[in-house]
Structure formats: C-alpha cells, structure tokens
Amino acid sequence: MTQTAAAVGTDGRTARAARVTTRRNPSQRRAARRQALIGWTFILPFAIVFAVFLIAPLVYAFYLSLFTKGLATGTQFSFFGNYVQAFTDPAFLKGLWFVIRFVVVLIPIQMAVSLAAALVLDAITTRFARFARLTIFLPYAVPAVIGALMWGFLYSPIFGPTEQLASLFGMSAPVLLGPDTVFGSLVNVVTWQWAGYYMIIIYAALQGVDSTIYEAARIDGANAWQLAFRIKVPMVANSLVLILVFALIGTLQFFSEPQILRPIANGSITPDFTPNIYAYSVAFSYAQFNYASAISFALGFVVFLCVFVFLFLTRKRGSVFA
Amino acid sequence: MTVVSSRVRPGVAARRSGARRPRNLVAHLFLGALIIYFLIPLWWLIVASSKDPVALFSGSGALWFSGGVDYLANLQDLFTYNGGIYLRWLANSVLYALAGGAGATVIAVLAGYGFAKFTFPGRNLMFAVVLGSVMVPLTALVIPTFIMFSDLHLTDTIWAVILPSLLSPFAVYLMRVYIADAVPSELLDAARVDGAGEFRTFVSVALPLLRPVIVTVLLLGVVACWNNYFLPLAMLSDSSLFPIPVGIGLWEGLAANNNGGGHSLWSLIIIGSLVSVIPLIIAFLSLQKYWQGGLSIGSLK
Fold it and tell me: Where are chain A's structural domains?
C-alpha cells in the first residue's frame, strides 16, 4: 500500500501543480497541453482497440438485440422483446441457474485448495515444496480444451482407470458424465485447471508480506495455525478478492469444458447447458443472431452485476481496483 | 517489487531443530497428494500417447505402459494424417499466440506508461472505464464481434482471431500499477533534461526497468491466445485456419460419431494433445523467475 500510495501521492501533487501553473503562465500551459498530447499518444493504440473490440461490439450487440427476425415478417424493431423472451426462456434460465449453482459449489472448493496449498508452500521451503509448487501450477499451461479432454478420457470406462479401480472393489465403473454426475465431474476439471494459478497469486502475495510481522506474532505466542489464519490470510485478503472476481467472471461464462465433453457425454450436456453454449447454439445452429446478441448482452450484464455486487460487499477489506 | 525478492524467511533455524518435524511430515504428505492429483491427467496423457489403438482400447492398465511403446509411429501418424493438417494447426496456434500476445503486450506497455506517467484531462475517467471493462466477460463479446466481422467479410481470416485478442484491459491495469512503482518520474525528468525526446526516454529509460512485468504480461497473453477456444471456434469455418484446440475439438466430434473414415482418431487426439501442451510447459518452466514475481503485481498491497 505504501508504495502505491506514494506513487498516487506524487501524481496528485504534479496534477495540482500543473493546474496551478496553467492559470498563471502561458508557457507552462503549453507544457501541460504538450503533456496531455504525449499521454494520449501513448494511450492511443489501446484506445482504438478498446473502442473497436469492446465498445463497438457491445453497442452493436445491444442494437441488434432490439430487433427480431421472423421468417414471414422480416426484421422488425421489437424494443426489449428479446430480453423479455430471454428472461422467460426456460433454456436460458436453466443455463443461468446451472452456472450460478456451479459458482456456489466450485469457488469455495477452488479457494480452499489454492489457499491451503499456498499457505503450506509459504511455510516450508524444501526442494520438494518447490517441485510441488510448479506441479500444481502446471495445468494453467494446459489449454482448457485439452484439460477437459484428458479428464474426459480418465472418466471414460474404455480409456480411463475407473473400470479397473471399480473392479478392485468388485463394483462396476461409475458413469462419471451421466446426468447426475456431470456437475461434480466438471467441478473437478475446473478446479484442476485453475487452482494452481490462484495458488501462485496467493503465494506471491504471501511472499510479499513483511516478515517482521510474523516475528512479532511469534513473540506474542501465536502458533502456526493462528499465524496462518489470523495474520497471513488477512494480509493477503486483496489477492483473495482478486481471485474470487476472476473465478466469478470465468465461471459465469463457462463454455469450453462442457462444449468439449458434449460429444462424449451421451446427452448429459445439452445445447442449453450454460448461457454461453446456448448463445452459441442459437447463433450458429439456428442463425438467430438477434436473439443470440440479446443472450450475450444479458449474460454480460448479469456477470457485470454479480462482480459489481461482490466488490461492493467486500469493499471494506480494501478494494482491489482502488 | 523489491519486497518480493528481499524477504528473509523467518524461522528457518527453528525448523531445523526438529521440533516441527511432525507438522512438516503432514505438510509434505498434503503436498504429495496434491502432486499426484495435479499430475495424473498429464501422466495418463504421456502413457496413452505411447500406445497403438489396439493397446489403447484393450482396457489393460490405463495408467501404465502396455503393448509397444511407440511415440515415433504415433507422431508420424499425427503429422501425416489428412495431408499434415495437424502441423498446419500447430503453425496457426503459434502465429495467433505470438501475434495476439505480443500485440496485446506492446499496446498495454504503451497505455500503462501513458496512464502512469502523464497527467491530462480525462485520464482518471478513462482509467475507471478500463477497470470497469475488466468485469465484462470477454466471451459475451465473441458473438457480437462475429456478427460485426461477418458484415465486414472478415470472418474466416487470421485477422478475425488476432485482432480481438489485442484487447486486454487487465494487462493495461497490471502495467499501470507496475510502472507507477518501478519507474521513478525523476529518472524520466533527468533524461528529458539531458535532451532525450519522449519516445527515446520511454525506450531507453523506462523499458529496461519493465522486463519482469513485460515477460509476465506477454506470457499471460500468449497463454490466453494459445488456449482460446470460443473465439476461433466462432470465427473460423475453414479447417486449415484452425488453431490446435479447435482442430482437436473437430477430431473429437468426428471420433465420437465414428466418422474417422476407418482411421482411429482417438490415438491422434491423444498424441495431438500431448504435443500441444509441451510448448507452454517449457515456456513456463524456463521463464519461472520472471512470472512468479510478476503475477503478484495486481494484488500487492
């Protein structure tokens, strides 16, 4: 905090200085204008990309979503008709309900695994721990498609070890991608894929904590558990919030893993499994681009709202994006 | 960022005394369990890649080698199937990842520098908008961008994948936070007083100080492009433009419907998956010392 605060402080001071001088001196005013020009020049490439690939698609999607295209009627302005349809469409609501349930189950598990791993790795420094750190992080480098496929194979009674494991106990292999089990199987895939990345972020934050605090706590008689949960966890609360935001955004727009497991899941994963898969099906299987735009926009809005509410609720712990 | 590297680890002496050995044993067992869990799929992939289709379907020992271990035959099959289409996908993946990742990084360094080191009207508002946009789910933009590109007849070209990948508000945020700390304004002023122009000051004074964050952002950008599935899946229908994930997805769909035309696509999918994870794993292992510190930037208090 001190470093960032200091940086912001100097920035604020120069800004104030600039404002004071603009009122006084024409040459200084010219300097301020020059500074603004140079600043904008550095930002320009990003501003263009931002306008073309974020603002424009959003505006265009919103525009498209206000029309409906019928076979007989042609394209008609329908105002919020598509949104009314989306939020009463059982397929869209089912997908939305699925990702919300998924977030509620997945995020605590993922956080627990990554936080526990980070705390242990911060406490021991053996070569084995360094090896573990790399191994846990490794799945982040594996494309989501490949990760889902590998687990799909491991779940499969033909390719995977489930059949053998089950026969050891005299049972038949469980169907891990069936209608009842696909939820848990997907939780496992996503946890495997992302826990390492989150672990590294928490670990890096733990490494950045001033160690004199630990010494002080130890002198005061704190044991290892107290040190971990009363001192370390609050010290890295910021990165926990950051991770939660990432996980929330990523999970609500769930697409790749279920899409990849679909061909081998024997119908457990439907074309309306998640909102994004539904939008994809509506756009590319039925060519209803107006309605697909409305679904995308509605999903984006729901995600934005969830994250905003979450950040609002956690703001007391110190906002990440402050 | 000096805090990250210069921390003296506490309690090393206490740990050597042996009083804590039981706790360390539990901790090591926990880590061992995690290692097994996180390595199992990759281990399965390495083992399964060695098998021919017969051994693959025999159901004997999914987690151990059986039959002939023949990576070379499988690789040869992979690289020659359908006129070497996999090599094409590999080249496409490399192109998209490098162009998208490097482009996004250059744009983010410039913008981060502009935001961190210059004051001008509208800066704070613009940065607030950038931060807000971090919360916009990027996949919600895929279908709208597809419709926009298809009106411009840009779908089914490499640009349809590369150009949208240049957008990375989070990279700009990381850069700004890092630059505000790591590049002292006094140093920039000194260069200006010595007569260096703005661009020269940026290139020869600021850039050399930014190596860790540039490597981190570049790596994150390359990974994001390399792993991207939804965008190329939506944008491309010509299979010779596919990156690996979309190509493998195509094969998987065919294999699940037994449409391989007499060829067992499953073994191609498996060895193809193995080949596709190797480059990034090597990149991460060899660039460890950069990204491990760099990843904490966004959340350091």
Answer: 2-65, 86-317
What is the CATH architecture of A86-317? Orthogonal Bundle (1.10)
Q: Which candidate in B2, B89, B147, B223 is best for mutational testing of the A interface (most A CBs within 10 A)?
A: B147
A10 chain-B contacts, CB cut-off 8 A: 185
Question: How many residues in chain A?
Answer: 322
Name the closest residue on chain A to residue B221, using Cα atoms: A141
Q: How far is B31 from chain A (nearest CA, A)?
A: 6
> Which architecture, in CATH terms, is B82-299?
Orthogonal Bundle (1.10)
Q: Which residues of chain B are within 8 Å of residue A11 when distances are taken between CB atoms? A: 116, 119, 180
- Which residue in chain B is spatially nearest to A137 when comparing CA positions? B38
Each residue's pLDDT expressed in tens, for chain A with a length of 322 residues:
333 333 333 444 444 444 544 455 788 888 888 888 898 999 999 999 999 999 999 898 889 889 887 767 777 888 888 899 889 999 999 999 999 999 999 999 999 999 999 999 988 888 899 899 999 999 998 999 999 999 998 888 777 777 777 777 777 777 788 888 899 999 999 999 999 999 988 998 888 888 888 888 888 888 888 888 888 988 888 888 888 888 888 898 899 999 999 988 888 888 999 999 999 999 988 888 889 989 988 888 888 888 888 888 877 554 444 4
Domain positions in chain B: 14-79, 82-299
Q: A127, A89, A131: which is closest to A275 by C-alpha?
A: A89
CB contact under 8 A, B148 and A56: yes
| CA–CA separation, A294 and A26 (whole Å) | 52
* Whether B62 and A164 lie within 8 Å, measured CB to CB: yes
A contacts of B270 (beta carbons < 8 Å): 153
**ipTM for the whole predicted complex goes beyond 0.95:** no
What distance in Å separates residue A72's CA from the closest CA in chain B?
22
* Cα–Cα distance for residue pair B135/B142, rounded to 1 Å: 15
| Partner residue opposite B34 with nearest CB, options A52, A117, A150 | A117
Nearest by CB to B38, which of A135, A215, A256?
A135
- A76 sits in which H/E element: strand A74-77
Q: How far apart are CA B165 and CA B169, in angstroms?
A: 11
